[in-house]
Specification:
Structural class: alpha/beta
Strand order of the largest sheet: 3-2-1-4-5-6-7
Number of helices: 15
Distance between the termini: 34 Å
Shape: globular
Radius of gyration: 20 Å
CATH architecture of the largest domain: 3-Layer(aba) Sandwich
CATH topology of the largest domain: Rossmann fold
Strand content: 5-15%
Number of strands: 13
Order of helices and strands: EHEHEHEHEHEHEHEHHEHEHEHEHEHH
Bound molecules: uridine-diphosphate-N-acetylglucosamine, uridine-5'-diphosphate
CATH class of the largest domain: Alpha Beta
Number of domains: 2
CATH superfamily of the largest domain: Glycogen Phosphorylase B
Helix content: 40-55%
Largest sheet: 7 strands, parallel
Length: about 375
Amino acid sequence: MAKIISILGARPQFIKAAAVSRAMGRLSTSLANRIRHVLVHTGQHYDENMSDVFFEEMEIPKPDYNLGIGSGLHGQQTGRMLEAIEQVLLKEQPQVCIVYGDTNSTLAGALAAAKLHMPVAHVEAGLRSYDRRMPEEVNRVLTDHVSDLLFCPTQTAVVNLAREGINKGVYLVGDVMFDCVQSCLQKVRSQAERILGRFPVSPGKYILATIHRAENTGDQARLKAILTALGKLSREYQIVLPLHPRTARYLENYGLSIDGRVKVTEPVSYLTMLALEANARVILTDSGGVQKEAYWLKVPCVTLRDRTEWVETVNEGWNTLAGADSDRICQAVHVALGPKDRPEPVRYGEADAAEKICRIVLDFVQGRHSVSTAQI
Ligand code: UD1
Ligand code: UDP
């Protein structure tokens, strides 16, 4: 029996792990239950609408462990996770520890396993914004450098790793988030009318916005400039803003408010989010995952950042980096709303990234794969 552990903790990781968990289940069934996939939730995200809703809607099995770490400063949160994950790894003795993306849960999982000489598999390896002020960039770089299996969503990611001297154990598999979008498209189409009616907004008639990244929320001037842009845009367009709890907390701390015309909601479920994205006229975001989803759903995106790790979306003309400058943001939205020839988005794989990841992990466990060298 192969024992594989997945470490998750934050919203985008539940979505990524949903695809892997489903593929792991299918593979295990076809091999007559030869895989035990242990799920560890660090508890980084804990609100019902930041955690449970994804497990229910995406049918992710209940985690075997919930470490209940919660919020805290980076060192405090990561340190607590490290200590608790280590105990689980010592008890479970998995053959591979899978970590996802670039959060503090990713780094803690990778570090705990690497220190115990347990192989680490990183899903979404090789992404780089080349901006170390972003906590995610630090988490990615460190995680990649202690990983044994590195699952890249794009060729750019493979090249980024090679530049850092990492070419062993690197696999270009596609993006598990693309798998998730593809598997939900039919439901999104059939349920869109009902979902949009809840806000209420009409297809193609609104802007969808999300803001949560540390570089925007932790900087009062940047957050204020973004809110100014939303205020100006809301005079002409309907705006829906599912508000991340981090942003809600900072708005309160700074005493800032959002223009009353913006439809502010609690964070929404994955299916609701995809329906809102697919039918938006433009998406404004600083999220990593939302930039990609906008691209795959062919909705122009204005990214509230100075840099992105998802460079293809910008190079292909679907995404514009507008930073946190209110005039630049408004200008970019007006351009995005106008007519523009954009190429068909490149696919991030064939919607079988999770399947490939599970097969490679299992082959690795069974010693069938010596760690391969990436072909660039
Ligand atoms: C984390 C990730 C970020 C990712 C995001 C996805 C790190 C360093 N950052 O950011 O890369 O894009 O998740 O959403 O790992 N809070 C709640 N309820 C919750 C969770 C958080 O109220 O369920 C509030 C708390 O005030 C907390 C703050 O949000 O202090 C930030 O949460 P945290 O998990 O530290 O980071 P995120 O901003 O969510
Ligand atoms: N998402 C969601 N509900 C929301 C906001 C986002 O389901 O209210 C989904 C979104 O569709 C994407 C993922 O969460 O799949 C992105 O996570 P987030 O923006 O929190 O983090 P990031 O990708 O920036 O790390």
